[in-house]
Amino acid sequence: MASLKALRGRITSVRNTRKITSAMKMVAASKLRRAQHQAEAARPYAQRMERMLGALAANIAGSPTAPRLLAGTGQDKVHLLVAVTADRGLAGAFNSSVGRAVRNLARRLESDGKTVRIFCVGRKGRDFLRRELADRIIGDVNYVGRKSIGFADAQAIAARIVAMLAASEFDVCTLVSNRFVSVISQVTTEQQLIPLPIPEQTAAATGPRAAYEYEPDEETILARLLPQNLSIQLYRALLENNAGFQAAQMTAMDNATRNAGDMINKLALVYNRTRQANITRELIEIISGAEAL
Amino acid sequence: MAVALEIVSPEKLLLSQDVGMVVLPAAEGDLGVLPGHAPMIVSLRGGVISIYEDGKTVSARLFVAGGFAEITDTRCTILADEAVAVAELSRAAAQTRLAEAETAWQATDKMDIAAIDDAQDRLYAARAMIDAAQAA
């Protein structure tokens, strides 16, 4: 049985751990509120953009002059996977689930004979993927030490992707990220960005789309709208990733705090039992010593 | 009758109100939108959006650096790249921006048509910003 001093030391150490995890939980909770707010504020633009794009793309899709961002390169050989993760850990399976999804997708594509390239957004995803797929990683960005993410960050990533597409460095671009469903649930999803899939229902939902007039003309507008749409999709992924990360960290730290509490209770019980056993033993020693006289 | 005007930037919904008329800096010239306008999708250049709440006098002026607008008979949705109230513009900021745009213009590859368009848009937006700041 451990000595009293050793037990005391362990209790103190677990208590310190609990202080840290509960502080982290509270920090994550307050950051979550801000991140969630930011993600919600970005939603109206994305929705309106989708409406306009639906009206435009349905008219132009299939025409031979359709821009590459919409129609792709017409091939399906090189896949670019954009993995969006957080820069920090201690958030349960949040980062590793994206990492696993990318790894599985990469393996599946490669077994079909396709070439895979990976672009990492966020430090944790890069660290995870570097172990097994280091030679597929063609670039990465992270926001370590940054207080908040702005639209300009998403635009910078979009510009790199557009440049790569212009140089025909890939044919299909897929975004793998965590979608923020609720505070307790973040779902890892794969979203194809290029070629842009046009949802069936937007064609119907936009109604009398043929009635729109365009200024300057459809193709010019589309050529400006598509890169903007790419930025918006990335921006949304970054914001949801941020909100999801804070939520995951809050949940993980809440669990850790509770586990630390349980551990303290168990240790305290052992400590008290040991202490009592020591007292009893000493008493027995004294009494039996007195009786022997 | 009113136009349901909405101005949204990627970061947030900036404005949502019913107005009498709104004048947009469309790519090929300014465009006034009154209720019952024909449905249109237009691309915007850098310039000033004038809002006429009662349809007669300007109630608000916003500078946009570019964007898109969707117009239907009852609705006008503006997707602005960046929108600032004209009163909040500063000459100095606009000048720095013009200088940046000019350097970017110098640096562009003159064979790349998309890059030229892009740099020109930036230059134009910066000049429009200075004009707007001066007028304010």
Describe this structure in words.
The complex is a heterodimer of chains A (293) and B (136). With 293 residues, chain A is α/β, with parallel strands linked by helices. Chain A folds into 2 domains: 4-19 and 254-292, Helix Hairpins, CATH 1.10.287; 31-250, ATP synthase, F1 complex, gamma subunit (Pyruvate Kinase, Chain: A, domain 1), CATH 3.40.1380.10. Chain A has helices spanning 4-41, 43-60, 68-71, 94-111, 123-133, 151-166, 200-205, 218-292; strands spanning 78-84, 115-121, 137-141, 172-182, 185-194, 213-215. A 5-stranded mixed sheet of chain A has the order 3-2-1-4-5. Chain B has 2 helices and 10 strands; from the N terminus they run E-E-E-E-E-E-E-E-E-E-H-H. In chain B, the strands form 2 sheets. Chain B has a 5-stranded mixed sheet, with no helix packed on it. Chain A binds chain B through residues 38, 41-42, 44-45, 48-49, 51-52, 55-56, 150-151, 154, 208, 211-216, 220-221, 224-225, 228, 231-232, 235, and chain B through 6, 8-13, 26-28, 31, 38-43, 68, 70, 77, 79, 81. Strand 6 of chain A pairs parallel with strand 5 (40-44) of chain B.
Helices and strands in order, then pairings?
The complex is a heterodimer of chains A (293) and B (136).
Chain A: H1 4-41, H2 43-60, H3 68-71, E1 78-84, H4 94-111, E2 115-121, H5 123-133, E3 137-141, H6 151-166, E4 172-182, E5 185-194, H7 200-205, E6 213-215, H8 218-292
Parallel strand pairs in A: 1-2, 1-4, 2-3
Antiparallel strand pairs in A: 4-5
Helix pairs in contact in A: 1-8, 2-8, 4-5, 6-8
Chain B: E1 3-8, E2 13-19, E3 21-26, E4 29-33, E5 40-44, E6 47-52, E7 60-64, E8 67-71, E9 75-80, E10 83-85, H1 91-107, H2 113-135
Parallel strand pairs in B: 1-9
Antiparallel strand pairs in B: 1-2, 3-4, 3-6, 5-8, 6-7, 7-10, 8-9
